[in-house]
Design brief:
69% helix, disordered N terminus, mainly alpha, 303 residues, disordered C terminus
Length: 303
């Protein structure tokens, strides 16, 4: 029977060892995965060391924030909230937190709206200087923000915007826009133009088709770009330091700097301020992590 099948098909039958398991018979040469033969400890040990290296600083700052002043215990017990009360009430961290939230949310909204308009234009329209414009956007990422402090300060001084949160919002938005526009254009390019054309045929205007068809599909990209703009503006120190000199207008990064004295540092208060500064960022990423990963992977497909 085997010989008859061989003559009809013109191929030789595959032979396997009599005692070999089915998985070995099905496995093709070159298809084996390299990590199948790696001992598990060689995988878990580096991951455990990396996790330890990452979490120890967080535990250390939390330890200084909740243990009493003068204590040297490595276990946060008994715990105290005196450091948080001190920085929140006595060191004006309530005002700093409010200012940082205003700057972060305003930067998020401004960056997302402008990047959405610019990204749609780059993705859907062809114009003569499109390549040069994209190159200029990419090259702008190599310019450090410190080089722009003097011209920005002069512009805001002439506009009477020094000591105004608006100056920080504008500066943060301008420096976030190039990368945001490039990312948003990549997200919109992944949406087929035929979907918009179908909406146009049904009588929708370009704006209505964009709002009802494109916008829901690029929502993960918008969340990714907006969260990145919020976190960057929340943590940025330089613009707030240069453009805001009054204490009631300063943000959390500048407020943390005020806790470092010339001769001594209140480690408990500084650690409590660091925890307060980290909480919004952790909460944001905890809620948007799945959209963040989806958005960045979608924008990296083509652009």
């Amino acid at each position: 029977m085997t010989a008859l099948l061989t003559e009809r098909n013109g191929t030789a039958p595959r032979s396997t060892a009599p005692g070999s398991p089915p998985s070995a018979r099905r496995r093709r040469p070159g298809r084996e995965r390299a990590f199948d033969d790696v001992p598990r400890w060689q995988i878990y040990l580096p991951l455990g060391l990396y996790l330890l290296f990452t979490l120890v600083p967080f535990y250390w700052i939390l330890l200084f924030a909740v243990r009493p002043a003068g204590s040297t215990s490595l276990v946060p017990w008994p715990m105290t909230g005196a450091h948080f009360s001190k920085v929140w009430n006595e060191r004006s961290f309530a005002v700093f937190f409010q200012n940082s939230m205003i700057v972060g949310v305003a930067t998020l909204v401004a960056t997302t709206l402008v990047a959405l308009a610019g990204g749609y234009a780059l993705a859907r329209f062809d114009f003569r200087i499109k390549g040069a414009f994209m190159l200029a956007l990419l090259c702008s990422q190599f310019i450090p923000g410190a080089l722009m402090l003097v011209p920005l300060f002069e512009i805001f001084r002439n506009l009477q915007m020094i000591n105004s949160l608006g100056s920080v919002v504008i500066a943060e938005t301008v420096f976030q826009l190039p990368l945001s526009i490039i990312l948003i254009s990549g997200f919109i390019k992944n949406v087929p133009v035929s979907l918009e054309e179908a909406a146009w045929v049904d009588g929708c205007s370009r704006f209505t088709a964009f709002r009802t068809v494109v916008l829901p599909l690029v929502r993960p990209g918008l969340i990714a770009v907006g969260s990145f703009a919020f976190v960057h503006s929340w943590n940025h120190f330089l613009f707030a330091l240069m453009f805001l000199s009054e204490q009631d207008k300063q943000t959390i990064p500048v407020g943390l700097n005020t806790l470092i004295g010339a001769d001594s540092v209140d480690l408990g208060a500084l650690a409590a301020g660091g925890v307060i500064a980290a909480v919004p960022v952790v909460v944001v990423f905890a809620f948007i992590q799945k959209w963040l990963i989806t958005g960045f992977s979608a924008g990296a497909v083509k652009g």
